[in-house]
Amino acid sequence: MAITGLGRNVIKFTVQGDSLVGKRKVKHLRWVAATAVADEVLNITDGDGFPLFESIADGANFIDIIPLYRWVDGIIIVAMTHGFVYAYCD
Predict the structure, then answer these.
(1) Residue 86, exposed/middle/buried by CB under 10 A (0-12, 13-18, 19+)?
(2) Sign of CA dihedral 1, 79, 13, 7
(3) In terms of CATH architecture, what is 3-89?
(4) Distance (Å, rounded) from C-alpha 42 to C-alpha 8?
(5) Measured between alpha carbons, how far is 39 from 47 in angstroms, rounded to an integer?
(6) How many CA within 13 A on the CB side of residue 40?
(7) Any idea where the domains of the chain sit in the sequence?
(8) Which residues contact 23 (CB under 8 A, 6 or more apart)?
(9) pLDDT tens digits, residue range 47-88?
(10) Model-level pTM?
């Protein structure tokens, strides 16, 4: 597990397979894939497998963000080929 920021409002996930349990109010999720090339993927689900965020990079220096503004029960990085995911929480 390579998660940082626990106990703060910004949680950083760094590798595929990272996961957190427990309920959190997530404002938005952001994928920063600075070294990504086209067609690299991100797939994030909650603890029940419900999709929270899916994205496909369109080239280098790719950044994608999705607003959620809701409670989620668990966060799982199912697929992430490069980069980092930030969960901004209340």
Answers:
(1) middle
(2) negative
(3) Sandwich (2.60)
(4) 23
(5) 26
(6) 21
(7) 3-89
(8) 71, 72, 73
(9) 999 999 999 988 888 899 999 999 999 999 999 988 899 999
(10) 0.90
